[in-house]
Amino acid sequence: MDSFELHSSIEIAHEIGRRAKALRKATKMTQKEFAEFSGIPFGTYMRFEQSGEISFQNFIIIMQRLGRIEELESILLPRKAIKW
Questions:
Q1: 18, 28, 53, 64: least surrounded by Cβ within 10 Å?
Q2: Model confidence pLDDT, tens digit, residues 17-45
Q3: Looking at residue 84, what DSSP letter applies?
């Protein structure tokens, strides 16, 4: 998936879940171990990897535990004015 612009919210959520799964696997933790490490119920974390569905607060926790929280810092900041 190159850009999220042309994809549905469901497709984007699935892709985010797949990416989180790949990053979790790189930590050599099982889903259960990562869920415990994150303080998130196992079923909640498992559903996130499969469907991308999760609360935003739990998503923030996952990003922190994956060492990727800085990627959220740019969300919803004002864009620079585009001059045509």
A1: 28
A2: 999 999 999 999 999 999 999 999 999 99
A3: -
